[in-house]
């Protein structure tokens, strides 16, 4: 059974710092891994999708890496801004079958202090 | 296309009442998913449709819950005889059929059962 873990659960940094969020998963047989952002009381916004054949994916100040063999992904945020404050979730499709239903971690709550 | 749309955004109901939520997916997406998210947790899979066919249901989906997707377009999620434990954010997502594609989420419906 696939399980996804995110550490740290919460993180507070001053504006301008670079930071890394971690995601680990137990079953390495994944098609892809997706990072999401969630603002309080809102839905999920897709940030990055990394295919199983990729090692990195970049979008603006965000860079996500994937190491399938070790069951890990990191989300790197450069030059953090107060507007980056949100919960960040990673998710992988459940192993096997024809569905790509997602298994989520519990998220990292990020606060960027001005 | 403005993305995945969910209505209503908020719903407060008395225990024992029935509620219905609606999700309009991205128009070309043939897969539609429902998730439930409680405070401090990641979303949990409830059910998914490929076109109009409901192909999988989670054990979380008790017999008080029913979902439909007539004609493979919008979907509804109904909860009968609501209980306080049903209070949560209900999220809808859509994607293309292929297993390695990105999932896009709506803004969610926040249900409060009093």
Offer a quick outline of the entry.
Chain A is an all-beta fold. Helices cover 0% and strands 56% of the residues of chain A.
Biggest interchain interface, per-side counts: A-B, 28 and 29 residues
Radius of gyration of chain B, taken over Cα atoms and rounded to an integer in Å? 13 Å
Alpha-beta classification of chain B? mainly beta
Mean pLDDT of chain A: 93
Radius of gyration of chain A: 14 Å
Continuous helix count of chain A = 0
SS-based structural class of chain A?
A: mainly beta
Q: Helix tally of chain B?
A: 0
> Strand portion of chain B, in percent?
over 45%
Instruction: Tally the beta strands of chain B.
Output: 11
| Helical residues, percent of chain B | under 10%
Could you tell me the number of beta strands of chain A? 11
Q: What share of the residues of chain A does DSSP label as strand, in percent?
A: over 45%
- End-to-end Cα distance of chain A, whole Å, is 41 Å
Strand and helix order of chain A: EEEEEEEEEEE
- The residue ranges of chain B in which pLDDT falls below 50 over 5 or more consecutive positions are none
How much helical structure, as a percent, in the residues of chain A? under 10%
Folded structure, characterized:
The complex is a heterodimer of chains A (about 110) and B (about 110). Chain A has about 110 residues and is mainly β. In chain A, about 0% of the residues lie in helices and about 55% in strands. Chain A has no helices and eleven strands. In chain A, a hairpin with a 2-residue loop joins strand 6 and strand 7. The termini of chain A are far apart. Chain B is an all-beta fold and about 110 residues long. Helix content of chain B is about 0%, strand content about 50%. Chain B is built from no helices and eleven strands. In chain B, a hairpin with a 6-residue loop joins strand 7 (about 65-70) and strand 8. Chain B is globular. Chain B starts with a strand and ends with a strand. The relative contact order of chain B is 0.33. The interface of A and B includes residues 93, 102 and 106 of A.
């Amino acid at each position: 059974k696939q399980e996804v873990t995110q550490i740290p659960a919460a993180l507070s940094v001053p504006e301008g710092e670079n930071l890394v969020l971690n995601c680990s998963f137990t079953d390495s047989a994944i098609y892809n891994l997706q990072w999401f952002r969630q603002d309080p009381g809102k839905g999920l916004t897709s940030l990055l999708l990394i295919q199983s054949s990729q090692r990195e994916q970049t979008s603006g100040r965000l860079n996500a890496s994937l190491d399938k063999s070790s069951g890990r992904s990191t989300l790197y945020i450069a030059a953090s801004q107060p507007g980056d404050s949100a919960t960040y979730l990673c998710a992988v499709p459940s192993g096997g079958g024809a569905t790509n239903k997602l298994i989520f971690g519990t998220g990292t709550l990020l606060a960027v202090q001005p | 296309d403005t993305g995945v749309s969910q209505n209503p955004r908020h719903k407060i109901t008395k225990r024992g009442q029935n509620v219905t939520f609606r999700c309009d997916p991205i128009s070309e997406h043939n897969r539609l998913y429902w998730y439930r998210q409680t405070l401090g947790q990641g979303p949990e899979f409830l059910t998914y449709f490929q076109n109009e066919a409901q192909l999988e249901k989670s054990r979380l989906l008790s017999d008080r819950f029913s979902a439909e997707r007539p004609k493979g377009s919008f979907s509804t999620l109904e909860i009968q005889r609501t209980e306080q434990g049903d209070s949560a954010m209900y999220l809808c997502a859509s994607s293309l059929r292929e297993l390695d594609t990105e999932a896009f989420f709506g803004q969610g419906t926040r249900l409060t059962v009093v």
